[in-house]
Write a structure and sequence with these properties.
The complex is a heterodimer of chains A (about 170) and B (about 220).
Chain A: H1 14-18, E1 28-35, H2 43-59, E2 64-69, E3 76-81, E4 86-90, H3 96-107, H4 111-124, H5 160-163
Parallel strand pairs in A: 1-2
Antiparallel strand pairs in A: 1-3, 3-4
Chain B: E1 2-6, E2 10-14, H1 20-23, H2 59-90, H3 95-171, H4 179-188, E3 195-197, E4 203-205
Antiparallel strand pairs in B: 1-2, 3-4
The chains are: A alpha+beta (about 170), B mainly alpha (about 220).
Chain lengths: ~170, ~220
């Protein structure tokens, strides 16, 4: 299999995107990063945008994620919530990991919450179910059950027309 | 699992089963009624006084059916009430949910406060950095200004030196009136630029002079003196 195209295509792999735990709370609707392409105090913000923005968008498909370049002397992250609240995070001279930790602390779901949600989701789709939207459509597909009467006719004992006869009153 | 084989090449296994009718828009296989009697036409003669027979259910069966019905209804009712109670307990307007919401709000406010404090700390660091940068820039500018001034001074000195030299040279220029005299002088006193150097640096003027011939007035190259 050939190499993936682009610089650091690792950022596009599912494994990398899944590995992040930056799941924003439901109240956040827009996530914005302002930074410059040059300047040492912007390096942390640049790294954050390069490595972590794809992860954030993957984990929060309902959130609008935007970046603005070369509009500010000092980098910052701004989040807009449902009730119009603005959360401003100053990231001047911070490293990428610092930014990630800070964001995780103030506005992301905790690991405990994420675990609980994952557990709930797992219990909802029970693999033993059958029917519409499940692995198997009918119980006749399951090994050990009565086969489909369209393929193998049921024994006469189980058929109504033989049990009760033809009755016309 | 729905397994479909495509040309014996690959085995596609689709994980979820959805009936074809749900994905397609049209309802295939529906039948329409060929004939229905119009509503203004009265019932036919053979059917107009027809009274349907009331079927007689045996008593034992009635008892059994009632028992089964009661059992079923009790079970369904119990399930329904249980779910209702659960819903009331955990719904968005219930006490539990509002309590949770209040807790979340409190937590959120606390985190926002923390964020503001963090912002202040970063702002202080930034101020310090900018101040340091300003000072270094200022120092750099002053140093460069001084350097420029020095260079300018040096250039001025150089220019003045050149002017003085030139002024000296100007005195040796031949004026138009003296031109003929100067030409005559030049013709009468030819200048010989040929000279040789021997190993000691002695200048031997003329084209063919030898070192052993020159005894008096030894002129030695200035660099050797």
């Amino acid at each position: 299999m050939p190499f993936m195209k682009g610089r650091f295509p690792l950022r596009r792999t599912q494994k990398y995107l899944e590995s992040s735990n930056l799941v924003l709370k439901e109240r956040v609707k827009v996530f914005t990063v302002n930074y410059n392409v040059s300047g040492n105090h912007h390096q942390g913000a640049r790294d954050f945008v390069y490595w972590n923005i794809p992860q954030i968008q993957y984990k929060n498909p309902g959130v609008q994620v935007a970046t603005f370049k070369n509009m500010t002397p000092s980098p910052f992250i701004r989040m807009f919530c449902e009730n119009g609240e603005e959360i401003l995070v100053d990231v001047d001279s911070k490293s990428k990991t610092d930014i990630c930790d800070h964001i995780k602390k103030i506005i992301c779901k905790t690991d405990a919450t994420l675990e609980q949600e994952a557990l709930e989701k797992k219990s909802l789709d029970n693999p033993a179910n059958f029917g519409w939207g499940c692995d198997r459509q009918c119980i006749c597909e399951i090994v050990g059950q009565v086969p489909c009467p369209s393929v193998v006719p049921l024994p006469k004992v189980m058929r109504g027309k033989y049990k009760w006869g033809q009755t016309f009153d | 699992m729905n397994i479909s084989r495509l040309g014996n090449e690959c085995l596609h296994i689709s994980r979820y089963w959805y009936p074809a009718g749900d994905t397609a828009a049209s309802i295939l296989g529906s039948q329409s009624v060929r004939w229905k009697k119009p509503r203004w036409i009265p019932r036919s003669k053979s059917k107009e006084f027809f009274v349907p027979k009331r079927c007689k259910i045996p008593e034992e069966e009635v008892i059994e059916l009632t028992r089964l019905f009661n059992k079923y209804r009790t079970e369904m009712k119990s399930v329904r009430l249980h779910l209702e109670r659960e819903n009331r307990r955990t719904s968005a307007t219930s006490e539990l949910a509002s309590q949770q919401a209040a807790e979340e709000e409190e937590e959120h406010l606390r985190l926002m406060e923390y964020n503001i404090q963090e912002n202040k700390r970063i702002a202080a660091l930034r101020e310090k950095r900018l101040q340091e940068q300003y000072e270094t820039d200022l120092a750099r500018v002053i140093a460069s200004k001084e350097k420029m001034e020095k260079l300018e001074l040096a250039e001025e000195q150089e220019a003045l030196r050149i002017i003085a030299e030139t002024q000296e040279l100007v005195k040796t220029f031949i004026k138009r009136e003296d031109l003929e005299n100067a030409i005559e002088e030049a013709i009468e006193n030819p200048k010989d630029y040929n000279f040789a150097l021997d190993a000691e640096g002695q200048i031997l003027k003329g084209q063919n002079s030898l070192s052993k011939d020159v005894q008096e007035d030894k002129e030695v190259l200035s660099s050797r003196q």
